[in-house]
Amino acid sequence: MTSYKELGLVNTREMFAKAIAGGYAIPAFNFNTLEQMQAIVQAAVETKSPVIMQVSKGARNYANGTILRYMAQGAVEYAKELGCKNPQIVLHLDHGDTFELCKDCIDNGFSSVMIDGSSLPYEENIALTKKVVEYAHQFDVTVEAELGVLAGVEDEVASEVSHYTKPEEVVDFSTRSGCDSLAISIGTSHGAYKFTPEQCTRDPKTGRLVPPPLAFDILHEIEKRLPGFPIVLHGSSSVPQEEVDTINAHGGKLPDAVGIPEEQLREASKSAVCKINIDSDSRLAMTAAIRKHFDEKPGDFDPRQYLKPARENMKKMYIHKIVEVLGSNNKL
Ligand code: G3H
Ligand code: 13P
Ligand code: ZN
Question: Staple 188 to which of 17, 71, 174, 235, CB 3.0 to 4.6 Å?
C-alpha cells in the first residue's frame, strides 16, 4: 500500500470547496507522456494553479500504472524545483470501470478515483459507487461518480446518444452512494468531434460549425437541489480551430472537428462546476506542433527536436485554459 500522502499529492476535497466558493474550476488534464506531464506542471506552477493530473485505463495500459504513479510523484518534486512551495496536485483515475481497478489505484498512490457506472442501471450505479466510496474513504481518497450518459465514446463504452442527467435523481444518488463529486451530462461529449454538422449551425462569416448550447437549465436545477456539491464536466475540450487548421494544413485530416465554446466553459466555471476535464485539446496541440515541425524540417529525426515544440504548444494551451477559461490561476 502506497498512500498518496507519502507522494506529496492531495485529494480533491478542500480544492473543490475553495473552487466552488471562489467561482472557478480546477483543470483536470489527462496525461500519457512525459512531455504532457512536464507541460502541465510548468503551466500550473507559472500560473499558481492547483491541478488534477488524470490517468485513464487506456493511459495505464499505454504508459504502465507504476510509471505514471512515479511520474505524478515526480510532478510534485518538479513543481517544487520550479519554485512552487506548496503544490496542490491530485493524481486521479479517469473513468474507472470496476471496483478492482479503483482499488488498485487507491492502493498505489492515487488521491482520487472516478468510478464510472453511468452505463449501468441506476441502482447498480449506486451500488458500485458506494462500494468504491467505502473503500476509498478509509484512505481519505475522494471519489467522483457519474450520472447521465455523454454522447461519444466513454472509454470503451460507446454511446451514440446523450442522456442528460435527471436533476430529480441527483440528491438520492449522491446521498446513497456517498460520492464526493458528480460528473453530469449537459451536452458535452468526448473527443474532437463533439457534434455532427447536422447538430450545428454554420457561422455565415467564417463557415465554421457553431455547436448547440449546453443545457445550463439542467446544471442550474442540479445546483439548486445539491447546493455546494462539487459538479464535474467531462468532454470539455474546445477543439481550437487554429490547431485543427494547422493539422489540416500539414497533412492531417480532421474535417469538421468541433468542441465546446470557451465562453460556455467560462460560465460553467463560475457555477458549482469545479472540475473540467480536458484531454483532446492537448492531443490537438501536440499533433499540430509535430505535424508542422515535420513539414518544415523534414531532416529532423531526434524526437527532442519535435517534442520540444509540442511540449511548448501544450503548455501554452494549458496556461490559456487556466487563466482565460477556468480562472484557477493565483489560487495557491
Ligand atoms: O474520457 C476519455 C479520456 O479522453 C481518456 O481517453 O481512454 O483514450 O485515454 P483514453
Ligand atoms: P475531451 O475529449 O473533451 O478532452 O474530454 C476529456 C475527458 O472528459 C476525460 O475524462
Ligand atoms: Zn471523460
Answer: 235
